[in-house]
Amino acid sequence: MSELRPLRSPAAPCKLLQQALPWLVVVLLAGLAGCNLRITPDRSSGPDGERYSAPGAKLNLVYNDSVDYDNGDATDWRFVLIGQQGILTLTCHFDEIDAKTVVHIRDAVGNIMAEQFHNGQPRQELTAKVNEGKYYLEVKAMESGSASPYTCEPKFDPVVWN
What we know:
By secondary structure, the protein is mostly beta strands. Helix content is 14%, strand content 40%. The strands form 2 sheets. A 4-stranded antiparallel β-sheet has the order 1-8-3-6, with no helix packed on it.
């Protein structure tokens, strides 16, 4: 009886893969080029693009910034520290009233406490009943074509409730 032998050497599959790999890469890249790849709206936001790295904002003082969905700066975050119970009010004025934006006040773990969607007016104002702690202010451009410089002012009024 004849002995069974492999048709190829054990190194043959590796060599075949090495020869095919450049072609697989070309085919993969060509396929991706034809796909509608989504642009990351916060690719250029910098440190204020994430809640965990948000810079501080001072109460009763204005700050200026801008959001631009298409240029990768769709979200801006700030935080404020509150020392007692009261009402936190955030007033924002958008230079471009056609920009589709949303403004949030969030608690220390990111839960939305107040929300104001763009309403066709340049001024947006929202309030939240707060206790002592850290609160986040989020301004977000919601869709392609949305871009605007803006000015915001966080204000705090102490209130003691029962």
